[in-house]
Give the backbone structure.
Amino acid sequence: MAFTVNNTPALCFSENFPDLVLSKVDATVYLTVSLNDRPIVSGMELVADSDQRIIVPIRQLLRTTSALARPEATTAPLPYVSIKSAKADESLTLGGWVIPGGIDEPTAFDISDFTLRNFLTWQPQIMDTTAAQPQWLAFVRPYSWQRFEIFTTLHCVDGRKYTRQIASTPDTYTYTQIDTSFGGLWEAFCAERELSPLAYDVFGQAEKRLTSSDGVTTVVREQNCPVAQRYVLRPPREDEDCFGFVNTLGGFDTLMMQGSAILKPSGEIETFTSREVERELSSGYTSYWEASTGYIDTERAAAQYQDFLKSRDRWVFRAGRWLRIVVDEYKLEHTPRELNAYTFKYHLAERNERRYRERGELPEVELPIIL
């Protein structure tokens, strides 16, 4: 090749994908970038600068990548980005798998080791949850020669513990999101045995197969890989709503907002006038809610609420259904090491002003007491 290209990572967060750098370019280069075999740009003509270099910010092209996370158990292959650089009759194609998301990448960082050790969540490692709150954890298997299984351990008030396997890794470079709610994991088990649950953990166990030069295969198991997540059960509180969102790691997290949601509908009325009589033609009535996080007492919890406000994929959980929402505005003022609270205003992405209510049996009429 008459030009050189820096290597692309086999696995990378979309927001951390490195720039494509073409060096020693002495002629026009044509660039095609595809995501899952669908071109984002095709045959884009590029001319080198005075240093014979071309720099292409690939992560800018990947910002339209759709999230894999959603409020349900999911297994899907990671998106694959393909980058083809061509000059005259020569071409070079590179590529890698992408996790929709991004992190504040430290200097010495290995994404494969990170995804092996961590679920794709920013939840506090020990967090309160209710028996009815939906929960999911997502993970990616980074190595073909290493697999892991996901387990959960129930902790009871009387000290008893129960452990069982709930998932195993599929193929490499696959996004897997599993149900880790109390209802999905332990509720029926506790009801059957009349147990009093206190908390439960979700964790992984990695299995590495190593083959020596003489052909001997050794199986090495690593505990707590991914590292455990603990859910401590608490009673539900009045005036709290559950929200879900795609976090900046590409996983799906849920949050309980403890402040009262205030309904603040808005809309324009369209009218027409006939024979000097004005009539309403349509109503633009739309429900908007102003919600509050309630007091936030730790920096880790605050970071997760901030992650919710940064997300572009958000839902509210109502009457057993997940409804996508759009946040119109928010107010966030944060003072470190103090109690903080954030507020935001939202509406349903699919406007629904319909109502439903079943009528019940009438009670007996209460006769007045005559003294």
Observations:
- The helical segments are 58-61, 111-117, 182-185, 187-193, 299-310.
- The radius of gyration is 27 Å.
- The chain has a mean pLDDT of 91.
- Residues 325 and 348 are 4 Å apart (CA to CA).
